[in-house]
Design goal:
2 copies of one chain form a homodimer. Chain A has 248 residues and is mainly α. Helices cover 75% and strands 0% of the residues of chain A. Chain A has helices at 9-40, 44-75, 79-112, 122-145, 148-178, 183-215.
Chain lengths: 248, 248
């Protein structure tokens, strides 16, 4: 962006705010990593740390929104620059929500640590979390670089996250049906998988912002979504329903 | 607000945007009402209508954010006015998310309509939805009137919503344990209850904004939360855990 024209006061302001976005992104990445680590190792101390750190993410979001508003008030940006600065508010909002989901994983970890462990496929949750983390890192890099190609790739990869969620959903259902004593733990694990799936949606939303900023066009609203499982009648688990989305 | 000083251009702009907020609020109230109605009457047509109407809510949110940014750019508001205009962006974001939850209820309705009905306590979901609807109406009224008392009352009432969610959670768990064929439907019903509970959180957030706008102080961060159930070890259902919150 800055190589397209001589750097203006607005550009400098925007870059400062974007630096805060990257800082916030780092904290959120950390929250996801530690949230999932606390779950996998049943470590309540790390979970507690994630819960506490969320306040820092929230206050950074607040700060970014106020800086953005100050820049708008001070610079009275043109339509294109206004779009840029509004994207900052949206992205900080996405990051804040991803942080909330990480905090929720940490909270459920604290609960699960006191429950009888079930023989669930913990590797699948780990893989899902890793994918979400790398998506977030790429999304923030491509935002700063205004890279449409990477952004479109992230939007496509989100389908893998949706499919991973679908598999886990089926798996937890079977665990619940096998033994009612698994129901409570599986409800929490299912919520954790759902949290990761929702993180993917917010990362996708960041990438869609990048595409919009660069091309001026919204990515296809009807992009394929792979979160189909919830529309099937699970107890049979063999019914073939038409693929539909159940995302919000 | 407008009786405190002669109405300025900024005040007129703000009032126009607030009118859009009220319009958006009306659409969201409608979405909740119809979403729950479609669930209770197993009416897929109404559910489809709710899903379609969500696009109007989303585009109104977009429009409000852009208007707010234009006003900031045009009027270069003072710190206090800036806080007012930023609250518009936050509240439209809260409303958009409540609309998303209503849409999700409608989507799950479409699924549940094809499942074997279970003997769940549909009255409880109806009561919970009614409470959420009246909270939303009060929250929007108290926002326009800058009424701290009503706002604080809403923040307190949200605890009832949390308690209703807790009761439903327990109820669905017992249904699942009684008969594994209930698991799939109960997962959807549980998500619907969770959606209503999350709506309550967003309405509370609107009320907290009002308190902040009027008093300049954030409501107590450590307000009591009644979403305690998820931290207990449900299968026993008789364990007494210390009340903690599991909200994001």
């Amino acid at each position: 962006m800055t190589d397209q024209h001589i750097q203006s006061a607005f550009d400098r302001d925007l870059e400062e705010i974007q630096a805060d976005i990257m800082k916030m992104g780092g904290l959120v990445e950390d929250a996801i990593r530690k949230g999932v680590e606390s779950l996998l190792t049943r470590n309540e101390e790390i979970a507690e740390e994630v819960r506490k750190n969320d306040a820092r993410i929230d206050s950074l979001a607040e700060q970014i929104n106020e800086s953005a508003a100050r820049v708008i008030a001070l610079r009275a940006p043109t339509a294109v620059d206004l779009r840029l600065i509004l994207s900052v508010i949206k992205i900080s909002n996405n990051l804040e929500r991803i942080g909330d989901y990480a905090k929720n994983i940490a909270k459920r970890t604290t609960v699960l640590a006191h429950m009888r462990p079930i023989d669930e496929n913990i590797g699948a949750l780990r893989r899902m979390a890793s994918l979400v983390q790398s998506m977030l890192k790429d999304a923030l890099d491509s935002y700063v670089q205004r890279d449409v190609e990477i952004s479109e790739n992230i939007i496509a990869v989100d389908q893998d996250v949706d499919q991973m969620y679908n598999s886990l959903f089926r798996e937890y259902l079977t665990f619940m049906m096998e033994d009612p004593r698994n129901i409570s733990a599986c409800m929490h694990l299912h919520f954790i998988a759902k949290n990761l799936e929702r993180m993917g949606d917010h990362i996708t939303s960041i990438s869609e912002q990048v595409v919009y900023l660069v091309t001026g066009e919204r990515p296809d609203e009807n992009r394929p979504k792979a979160d189909t499982i919830s529309l099937e009648n699970h107890p049979q688990l063999n019914e073939t329903s038409p693929p539909k989305s159940l995302g919000t």
